[in-house]
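Reply to dn_fold:

You asked what the input looked like. This is it:
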Amino acid sequence: MQITIFSVWMTILWSSILILIFYVLRKKLVLLDVCSVSGVLILYIFCIIRLMIPIELPWTKELWGGEIYNRVYDVVRYEVLSGINIYQMFGLIWMAGALFFFIKLTIRYIKLTKTLDRIHVIKDERAENVLTTVLKDKEKRPEIMKTSAVQIPCCVGAFHKRILIPEKEYSDEELHYIILHEHTHLKNNDVLTKLLINSICAVYWWNPLVYLLRKDMQQSLEIRCDGQVSKKMDSIFRSNYLAVMLAEFKDNCHADEFKKYHSSVMPLFEKHSEKLIERFQLVSDRKNGTSVKGNLVATAITICLLLASYSFVLQSKYDCPIEEIENDDISYSVNSDNSYITIRDGEYILHSGQREKVISEEAAQMMIEEGFLVIE
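and this is what came back:
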């Protein structure tokens, strides 16, 4: 098991291609029909795991990538400074950028936590009662925070889970849909998933496809949440649920204080009308967020892709220059056609032409596997 420039390259290649394929299929709704939204999330999580583990396994086969592959490798290993190749320089820039963005992400999360601890919160008994009706037995109760610091209902916290509600009047039905939606996010650990994908974006900050993954994964989390919330609703309740989201969208098309903490917050909706329209369409079409069959299909696809992605790694290969091969009376060729091995007094002896040479047992076993004849 090892990490090389070739294994890192294969990780980037596999993940980038699959992200693009999954995104296109998901946008065309083909993938939703086959795998369901939760299945799509399984496939996206596979891409994240693949990006996190750029290794060669013991059973990984090394394959030659071809002449073009050799030429690309020649370019990236070109020495630009004393003892530093292009790929080494890129690696240093990569690590420096990853460290910068990861620290930035961490600081934002710490600032968000401190902000939540100091904002003014209003006690809302109605919201607490609605949350009680939403919770199932033995479910951990999140903290409800009604505050003027937000204009959009949202949830935060990977561990200390909180639901934030704007300081305005809601009907009991509106509160029910809002709290049910945000609690479903918390129950699914969507905030933690969002932090994970943002960490991946921090590491692969230079790859535009990881931002595409983040964008569509966030939308997929919302679609799954909508599907789970509306799964047992009839058409009237579905319409009411969508009406609440639409009303919030119309009232809150301006920025709020928590926009800068978007990487750690799950709002009721994204401020993009086309995303909201897609969610409306899927809820109206009764496309649920989960499916046992879809999860099984996605899991099977994931296992196959995982095995395939680690089954081989493309390597560069160069022929030995003919001019560097010595050809004199001392040098001679040894192969299974003109040589054989004998065992004498426990020693392995190589016979080639008129010459004999004692060789190690390990070398003898390798030559036997190559087809050399053994005479005892």
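DSSP finds twelve helices and twelve strands in the chain.
Hope that clears it up.
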